[in-house]
Every structure is written in C-alpha cells, then in structure tokens.
Amino acid sequence: MEILNNLLFGFQTALTPTVLFYCFIGVLLGTFIGVIPGIGPLATISLLLPLTYHIDPTASLVMLAGIYYGAQYGGSITSILLNIPGEVSTSVTCLDGYPMAQQGRAGVALFITAIASFIGSLIGILILILFAPSIAEFGLSFGSPEYFATMLLGLVAVSTVTSESPLKGLSMVVLGLILGTVGIDVNTGQSRFDFHIPQLLDGISLAVLAIGMFGVTETIRSTDRELVSNIKQSVNLKSMIPTVNDIKKSIMPIFRGTAIGSFFGALPGTGPAISAVLSYTTEKRISKNPEKFGHGAVEGIVAPESANNSATQTSFVPTLSLGIPGDSVTALMLSVFIIHGIQPGPTLISQQPEIFWGLIASFIIGNFMLLILNIPLINVWASILHVPYKFLYPAILIFICLGIYSINNSTFDIFVVAIIGASGYMLNMLKFESIPLLVGFILGPIIEENFRRSLILSNGDLTTFISRPISLFFLITSFTLLAWSVFSFFKNNKL
Amino acid sequence: MNKKYYDLIGGIFLCGIGIFVSLYSYFHYPLGELSEINLGFFPTVLGIILTLLGAIIAVKCYYSTYVEYIRFNYRALIIISLSIMLFAVLLNYTGVIISTMISVITAGFADRSTTLRAKFIMSVIVALIVWIIFIKTLHIQVLAWPQFLL
Predict the structure, then answer these.
(1) Using DSSP, how many helices (H) and how many strands (E) does chain A show?
(2) Which residues from A are below 8 Å from B56, CB to CB?
(3) Which position among A9, A11, A343, A489 has the lowest Cβ density within 10 Å, counted as fewest Cβ atoms?
C-alpha cells in the first residue's frame, strides 16, 4: 500500500541520528515547559526560532512539533498535582485531576492521562496520514481567492473563538495585520511604516514579536506566582495502576475526546484548548452521573487529555496540506518553513515528501518517547514544581535577551522586545488577547498578497471572490461565524 | 478603577492607532485602483476598520454593567522592561557576563520576596549557564567581558 511505503520512507528520515536527537530534545523540552505553568509551547517555540535558522528544516520542525505535543503531556502533571494548569489546554484536567490526587489517586490519574494522551495522539496522527494528502490534492485547485477566503476564515475564527469578546479579538487581529505591513512590500519593493529606521526595513521580526508578546508578557504576569506543591505523596509505579473499573469507564470518553479533538484541531482557528473544554463539557452532559464531575471522575480527565493531544496532531492537517495554520503554534511553525525557503501549501506533500512523512514518523516516535518519559519519570517532573518561580524567571529573561540578540546581532531588537512585552502586558490586562494579534501578524502579508493577486488576475473585479464556489463558501462561513458570535455576545450583554 | 473605564482607554487607544495608520498611509503611500492595488490600500482600509472597532469598544463600555477590577502589577512591568533594556544597553559595553549579572539582579527586584543575597547567587548561576550554553556551545558573536579588560 502506498501509505505504508510513504511511512517507511518517513521513518528513514526520522530515524537518522540528527532527527532523532532533535525529536528527543523537542519532547523533553516540551514536557518540561508543559509542567511549568505560564511558559507554553508558543513562548518556547518563539524562543527557539532563532536557533532553527541554523538547523536543517526537517530537524527544526520535528523539534518544534515535539515541544508542541510534549507540552500537552507535561501540562496535565501540574494540573493534577498542583491544581494549576500547566498549559491552557490542560486547565480542565485540574477539575477532576486534583480531586483525584487529593483522594490519594494521583498516580492513577497521571498514568491514565498519559495513556489517554497517547491514544489521542496516535489516532490524530492516523487522521493526519489518511486525510492530509487528499486534502492537499483538493487544495491544488485553490487559487488566490480561495486562499484569501480560507485565511480570512482562520482570522475570524481566531478572533471570535479564542477571545472573551469577539470585538476585542477582531481588533487584535487587525492590529496584527497592520503590524505585518511594516517593512518592504513584496509587490512594489517599497517600504511601509519604517519611519526612516533602517532596522524596520525588514519589518518587525516575528521572533521579536512572538517572544515579546508571549515570553516577556508572561514573565511579567507570573512574578507573583508561587509554585508550591501541596501533594507530598511521592508517586511510585505501583500506585499508578488503575482499577478495572477505571479502565472500563475511560474507554468511551477517550474515543469521544479524540473525535472532538481531531475535528476541532483540524479547523483553522481552534486548537487543543478549546477541544479540551468542549470534550469535558460533552462528557459531563452525556454522563449518567454528572454530579461526580469535579470530584475525581476519571471521565473528566481522560476525555480532555485525549482531546488536546489529538487536536495538537490534527492541527497539522491544514498546515501541511494547505499551508493554512490550524492554530497559533502551527502558524509560528509555518514561518519556519518560509525561513528555510520551503513554500507551504498543497505542493508541500508532493514536492517535499521527506518533510511531510518524516514529520509524521517523528510524531509517532515522539509520542512513544513521551510515554516512556512521562510514566517512570513522573517524580522528576513533579520535583521541578518545588522550585519557586522567582528563581526561574530571571534566567528566562536572559535567555530571551540572548535569543533575540542572536538573530541579527542587534541590541535594537532587544529594546523592541521590551517595548512589545510591556505593551503586550498592558493589552492583556485590558483583556485584549495576544494570540489573535500573532496570527494576524503572521497571516497578514500572505493574505494581502493573495488579495492583491486575486484582484490583479480578475482585473479589479471584486466579484471574483463570490463567483468562485470554494471561495464563496469560506466567505459565507466567515461571515456567519462573525455574525453569530457578535449576536450571541450581544445577547449576553458582554461584547 | 472599574474595568469599564479600562475598556474605554483601550478602545480610544486602538482608535488612535487606527486613525494614525489610515491617515498616514493614505497620504504617504499611493492607493492605486482596484485593478492595480498599490501599497497604501491595505493599511488604509485596516486603519479604518481598527478605528471603527476601537470606537465601538469605547462607546460600548458605557452600556456595560459588568463590574470587575483589574490589578496591574506596575512594579513587575517597569522592573522587567527596565532590566531587558538595561541588558540591551550594557551588552556591547560590558560584555555578556556582566550585563547578565546586572540584568538578573535588576529583574530580581520584581519579586519582593527575594533577598539581595539570593539575587546575587542567581546572577552568578545564570551567568554560568549563559557562559556554558551561549558562549561555549553556541558561539554567539558577542564579547564575553568588557573591552577594556581584554
């Protein structure tokens, strides 16, 4: 079968020492930052972006992806042991995970979430294998108007679904788009908004923006945070074995969670966090004993964990097959493609099969590595949580500064990071989310280029977006989504 | 201050950016026509949209009955931003090691509970890690020690 051939080919790439090494670093780092609250894959990937300029593209992507799905494993550890979400996507795991830990069942909770995450990941990878190539073929019929419309949907989705207020989310997307216009314009070779500062000719560096908005801002937000574990029990291997009852109760929630996660992960704009929340709510609604939720119900931890892991894997479906990011992290990874001169889009799978299949093979390998890392090594991770945050953040700040400096050997960039970090903090406190801004910034130049190209090809005819069926479909969906979220927030008087 | 008024500030701030962007790009960059879109089109339109959104957010706050108080951590904000900028300024004059130590100690003030001794020990540890990772392993192009010492 062709798929098996391709997979074997992928393993050939993934099992080389370099790629294996970076895969291991990625998942190890991912688990580590997943465990630490506040720092997430987004901040870490931003920090490592400068490094990836010098490494082979496949290896960089393998590492960054490893950080992404590794964090989903690590985050649940903190959620269960500390009642603090290690990752946004593991927030709901606190609700039933911590009560389980309080009942002395921390080991079981940790073990079973690792298994649930693993199953969710594998099924997500399977979906990636089955659907991405076909979607890519479909995507070959995409022209500029289709790209414009689909990315517009992604922007609308990111602003309406992830923020508390669609208006604020939209304004952040627009701000991101505007920031993306700074610099030399590809079509005309003239620069915009550089204000005669030579460093701005290339535009605002993505790494600077991302690290500023997610690394520095998060550091400012977290300085008063204490990290003290109340659960003094050491988790040994024997205490991890779940009862038969636990296993029986977990099977269906795992599959339901995986289904929800796979679907929402593949949609542009939604990702692991939302999938986890939706999965938890679904389980609670379908359950015959909803009152058990919040008090240590196994269903309440396995479903969201499978959901967030499968969503993480399937967020690569649109990214690799169409070049449209599944969510903010994959948007960042798209820029790694572009930095290395690889054109993301439907032609990626056919023209660079070693990247696609190598990535998939590395996902499989990475998840196995994570299973091993997360079960026997749980005590190691748990001990990290005993280090007070106040000793960690200065080191993080210095890494941020040096990471930024290493991109262009420019101290100007470090200044910009400080300014962006401060502004980002203030925006966040005013409840303006950073993720829409980042996605707007990344997609801005691409969307603008597609828009202009569509109009050039159609000779200024705006109806080109409506006369083509695929483009029309996505435009209508965007509009509906926008209208629906504005309307529903109006009803709750919380715009 | 009530959150409502923070929304007002946020909305007006966005309005301001929107107006600035749309006017600046309208007057400085050619707009072009629909069949030949030029530089200025995208930023101008985006600026207008942002102004509208900002205006709606600002005005809407008067109708909102939602009460929530926001606590800004000004101390952390200023100290951390300052320590980063300090690093940027010092880097080329005093080399990595010393600017690292100074920045770490400065950043340490953001958390009230660290003692001066703890800050100093942290700065040494971080400088050591920096030395191992960035200078020895990654070979970044920067002076480790101040010029006059070399």
Answers:
(1) 23, 2
(2) 167, 495
(3) A343
**Taking CB atoms and an 8 Å limit, are A394 and B33 in contact across chains?**
no
Residues paired with B32 in a beta bridge: B37
Count of Cβ atoms closer than 10 Å to residue B109 Cβ: 17
- Interatomic CA distance for residues A409 and B4, integer angstroms: 43
Q: B21, B43 in Cβ contact below 8 A?
A: yes
What is the mean predicted confidence (pLDDT) over B34-51? 84
Residues in chain A with CB shorter than 8 Å from the CB of B29 are 190, 192
**Interface touch A394/B104, C-beta < 8 Å:** yes
Most confident of A60-74, A127-141, A212-226: A60-74
Q: Does A221 touch chain B if contact means CB atoms closer than 8 Å?
A: yes
Residue keyed to tokens 């569509």: A454
Cross-chain Cβ contact B47/A178 below 8 Å: yes
pLDDT tens for each residue of A252-265 = 999 999 999 998 88
Token pair listed for A125? 């990878």
Interface membership of A493 toward B (CB under 8 Å)? yes
| Residue among A279, A272, A273 at smallest CA distance from A300 | A279
Q: Determine the 3-state secondary structure of B137 from DSSP.
A: helix
CA closest to B29 among chain A residues: A192
| Amino acid symbol at A2 | E
Question: What are B19's two structure tokens?
Answer: 């107006």
The pTM of this model reads 0.81
d(CA A367, CA A382): 20
Q: What is the ipTM of this complex?
A: 0.88
